Structure formats: C-alpha cells, structure tokens
Give the backbone structure.
Amino acid sequence: MAIKKFAVACYDDEEVLFPAVKKVRHSGYKMHDVYTPFPVHGLDQAMGLKETDLHVVGFIYGLAGTATALGFMGWIFTSDWPMVFGGKPHFALPAFIPITFELTVLFSAVGMVLTFCYLNQIMPGVKKHLFHPRQTDDLFVMAVELNDQVTEQEVVDFLKTTGAVETSVQNAETEWWYGRWDKEEDYQLAGS
Amino acid sequence: MNERFEIPARLKTTSLVLMIIGVVTLLIGAFTLLNSNAANHEIMHAEKTRFWIVLLHNSVYFLLITVACVFIQAAVSLAQGSWLIAYKRIPEAIGANVWIFGLITMIILFLTAFVFNIDGHNPIYHWVHPDGDKILEGKRGFLNPAMFVGFTVVTIGLWSFFGRKFRTISIDQEKASKNATQNYWKTIRWSGAFLVVYALTQMSTTPWMWIMSIDAHWYSTMFSWYTWASAFVSGMSVILLIVVYLKNQGNLEIVTKEHIHDLGKFMFAFSIFWTYVWFDQYMLIWYANISEETTYFKIRQQGPYGLIWYATFVINFIMPILILMSRPSKRNYFTVSFMALVLIFGHWLDFYIMTMPGPLGEHWHLSWYELGIFAGFIGLFIFTVANSLTKASLIPNNHPLLKEALLHQS
C-alpha cells in the first residue's frame, strides 16, 4: 500500500509504443508498467520483464496434490478404516494412481489460476487504479514513476518527445484494494 | 548457407561398421544359435527361437519408427503446421526408406511364421499350427496364414508407397514456379488418405497381428495405441537427433532453439501419453485379476523380466518427466539429444519386453546377439537415411510456409 506519483503517457499506435518503451528504458527513468487494451506480442521482451516463475509454482502445487492424494488414501485404507477390495492389498497403489493423477492436475491447475490472479492483481471485487479510462479501449498507456531525482516537467517533456498523444501527472495507489470505494480522496491528501 | 548435405567420411565409416557388426552377428547367430545342439532340449529350442525373435523385434521396431516419421510429417501437413517445415526433408528422407525396412520386416515375418518350426510347432506364432487349441481355433478368422500374408503385404506396400509419395511431391515443389500451391494442397490430400491407412494399420490391427499374436492367447485392445506411442516418441527422437547432427555439420542453419523446443515438447508430451496407455493396459488387467489376462504381466513384472519391466518405466517416464519438464532443458541441445538417445533405447527395451517373454520364457538374454542386431539396424538406418538426405536440398526453398517456419517461436 503505497501512493506514488506517476507521469502518464498515452500512445495510439503500437509502432510508436515500441520505440517509446525502448527510449524510456534507455533514459533511465523508472518505468512502472504499460497498459494495453489487448495482449501485445513482444512487449514483455521490450520492457525487459523477466520470465514468470508461475510454472515452478505449478510444479510444487502438483507435488502437493500427489502427496495429498497418496497420503490421504494411504492413511484411510491402511490405518483409519482398512478394507479389502477385490482381494487387493490395503495399500493398492495401482488403484490409487488415477485419483492421484486427478488430484495432481487439480491442485496444480487451481493453484496456478489463483496464483496468477494474485500476481496480476485480478480477483472478483478487487479494485485497481486506472491511469486512463481508454487503456481498456484503444490507448496504450505507459506510467513512469517520479521520484526526488527527476522533475515532473522534465519527464513529461521527455515523454512528449517519444510520441505520446496525451500526458498527465497522477498520484496513484500502486497496489490493489478490496471494496467498492475508490481512493480519490487519499490521492488528494497525499498530493497536496 | 549449406543447403546440400554431403555424407562426412566419419558418418559413412560408422554406418558401415555398424552394418558389418550386424551382418557378422547375424552370421554367427545363424551358425551358433540356429544350429544349436545344446544337450538340454529346452535350451536348444530357446536358442533357435532367440535367433528369430530378436530379428523380429528389431525389424518391427525400426519399421514402426520409420512409419511414425511419415505419420508425423503427414499429420503436420494436414494441420497446415509450419513448425516442422524448416526440417521437413528429414521425416521425408526417413519415409523414403520405409520400403527397405518394410521389405526386411516382411521377409523376417514370413520366415518366422512359415519356415521356422520345431517338431511341426511354431514357438513364436503358435496360431500357425493351432493343433486343436480351442482358443486359437476360435481366433482363426483373424489369425490365419492367409490373413497374415495378405495383411502384411498390403500394409507394408501402402506404407512404402506413401513414404515415397510425400517425398516426390515435396521435391516436385522445388521445380514448380514461385508461389505455386498445387503441390501444397496435393500433400494435404495425400496426408488425409495416409492418416486413414495409418489408423487402420499401425494404430489398430498391425501390432495385434505382428506383436500381440506372439502371446496368442492373450489380447488387449489398447495394445496398438501403446506400440504407437512408443513408435511416435522414438520417431520424434530420431528426427531430433538428425536435426542436431545436421546443425553440428553446418547444415540447417535455419533451425533454431525454437524448433528444437517443439521437438522436445513432443518427446515430453508423448512420453507421458505412452505411460498413460502403458499403465491403463496394466491397471485394468491388474484390477480385474482374471488369470487368462494376468499371465501376460506375471512373467513380465514378477518373473525373470522384472528388472527390464521397471527399467522401461524409469527410462520412458521418470527420466523424461524430470529432465524434459523445464523450458531451458528443452531448449538445450545437449539435454534433448541425450534424452533422444535414452528414449530410443528405452523404447527398444519396451519392444523387447513385448516380444521376448512369450516365446523365450526365462531363457532370455540381452547380450551380443541382441545388441549386435540392434547395431546392424542402426547402421542400416543411418546409411539409408543419410543417402536420401544427400539427394535433395535440405531446405524446402519453395514451400509456401517456409517464411512462417523461419519466424516460428515456440
């Protein structure tokens, strides 16, 4: 939970956006994020985002699923309520495999979806600051973080030279929050 | 760019040496095993049987790999996939040699079924002389000599025809005018036809006839899927090895890590598919626990073959799932080539466990004869495929999807 100050630049063309991203990275200004109305191929690489570790988490969830299934069934059928099915041993491993497989897939899938939602800050009922209403429609929006070492004017002027069609300076909550209220008042307090 | 492949002297020597090893092993086998005069009758019969069953095992394995490569090529063409186009000459070159392996397999199958017998009884294909066996008499409609001969000839004939057809069309495209797509659509039509043939042979009836009928009393409807999965993984591994080899030779510079990644994904995914079918076949029989069916697994899992049985599971499932799961390892030339070699051997062992236990029982060997014949087939494979590769440009320059293939990202 932190309110920060951003210089926001809007672009109306991918062809302009890519060089702009490159220039901002070169300039040394701290790029907060780029918001686009649709997935833009190659933007991750252009922004220098590192590869996600989501699949590693998925593997761990999968292992947790395997362990849960085998452990639970093993415990039930050997010590909690031992029963004989079709003359098979109590710990009938081949019979457990299909359920173990399903639980591995289930844990890994559900876990990855939830982790993905958490990392991307999307969840039912969760709110996030919108830098520009048209960032979900037809504008590519880039937010550059402002700090003590740069002046507002300097960054805005720089962003204009990269081809931005619209620029602004905003105070914004960087994290997501839960609930229906928005945080306009908080920004005004922090901004003043 | 080096579009033409010239066989390096070292590869030629290697393949010739391997083929000579194979032929010498075959000759020694013919003199010692086939003319075995061991005092113990059981061992004598086992040695004679071993001579044929090893040939059958290797020839069928290699034939199914070559046909799997034709299938891979046809399936990708039918789906209009571009990821294989950069190296489509490789499955085509393998496909052009289906007839050689088909001919060898056909000769071995017919000799095994109709020439080989001990005291009027065939130890490998019991159904050739049912001798009043009620179960085999009941299966006469499918398992009889006429059906075996007819089916084998038709199957191998069709496979060889399609293998050569795809290559001919593809090379015709080189001479066609720029941007001509007639041959492209022609390939798609022939691919559709081939998939039907392939589904009716390799994916259903052929492994029943050639391999499953070794244990003639036993049957499993999943058997063909299981052999197909083996052949598919091995086919992908073979294509990958040839791609990496050609890249090391300075050919095929257009193939990048993106393409290697795709092959790695297929090896990984179909190793898991193989395990799925392998385990399903096992689990249903284990659960039902009917003695007619469980005998098949009794000898393989708990009997003298236990070690190989578990080894195939470790090599074909545990190793790929652990080693090939992560993205960097599928993009690393060393790991994928290493896994390709391991998987080819693993699925060779898998075919071993399908063929040997029925006729040989506890008198199994995995020594000079088995490995020598294996080496011979590897040598023949390298020799014939390398020869076919030299005969055309390695890059399908005139293919409509070539540009898409070069830009491919996985």
